[in-house]
Amino acid sequence: MSDPFEFKTEFAIEDETALRALFPPTHDMAKVKCLDHLDPHAKAFVARSPFLCIGTQAPDGGADVSPRGDPCGFVKVLDDRTLAIPDRPGNNRLDTLSNIVANPSVGLLFMVPGFDETLRINGTARVTTDPDVLALMSVQERLPRVAIIVTVQEMYLHCAKAFRRSDLWNPEARQDRGEMPSLSKMIMDQTVGAPEDPEAMAEIDEKLEEGYKASMY
C-alpha cells in the first residue's frame, strides 16, 4: 500500500464564509433556474434518460450513490412533482432502499447519451409496493418488487462543462476495457483471491455473464 495521505489542516476550509470568499458570486441565473416542480423540459429529459444516479444517506450519516438504468423512459412521471423509479434485481445489499426508509432525502442525476447537460432533482423518497405503480414498470412481463416514489423539492438543468471536460461521449475517448481485469477477478482479488488458472477465471467470468442474462429483470 502507498504511504497514507497527510491532510494539512492549515489549508482546511471549515466554514461557508471562508469557502465563498474563494469564488466569484453565484451567477444570477444559477439562483433563479431552480424550480420546485417538473416543467415540460424536465419531463422530456426524464423520458429520454436511460440512466440516473441516486444519492442517499445512511442513518449513521454515511453517503451512498447508486446507478439505475433501463430503457429510456423507465422513470415514470406521475405528476408535476412526483416520479417513480423501479428497483430491478441486484445484489440485495439494499443500500439505497434501506437508506430511504431511514432518511427520505435523495438527490437524482439524470443523464442522456449524447447530451452534455444533466438534470438534477433533489427531494424526498418513499418505497412502495403499490401494484398500480409497479404495473407501469413491467419489462419482459416482470414487475419490480418495489418502486421508489420521489417527491420533487428542487429541480434544475446542469450545464455541460463536466461532460465536455471529461469528453465522456466522444467515441475516440473510449478506453479499452481489456486493459483492466474482469469484474469477477477484481472482486475476487479484493476478497477470497482469484484463481491463477486463466481457464478457471474465464469460466467464472462466463458464469457472471450468464447471471446477467438470467437476472436482469
Question: What secondary-structure arrangement, pairings included, does this model have?
Answer:
Blueprint: H1 16-20, H2 28-32, H3 40-48, E1 51-57, E2 63-69, E3 76-79, E4 82-86, H4 95-102, E5 105-111, E6 118-128, H5 131-134, E7 147-158, H6 161-166, H7 183-190, H8 198-215
Antiparallel strand pairs: 1-2, 1-5, 3-4, 4-7, 5-6, 6-7
Pfam families: PNPOx_N
Organism: Shimia isoporae
Protein name: Pyridoxamine 5'-phosphate oxidase N-terminal domain-containing protein
Q: What do you see in this structure?
A:
It is a single chain. This protein has two domains: 26-166, Pnp Oxidase, Chain A, CATH 2.30.110; 175-215, no CATH class. 29% of the residues lie in helices and 24% in strands. It has eight helices and seven strands. Strands 2-1-5-6-7-4-3 form a seven-stranded antiparallel β-sheet, with helices on one face. The model has no long low-confidence stretch (mean pLDDT 96). This is Pyridoxamine 5'-phosphate oxidase N-terminal domain-containing protein. InterPro entries: Pyridox_Oxase_FMN-dep, Pyridox_Oxase_N, Split_barrel_FMN-bd.
CATH topology of the largest domain: Pnp Oxidase, Chain A
Biggest sheet architecture: 7 strands, antiparallel
Radius of gyration: 21 Å
Tell me the helix content.
25-40%
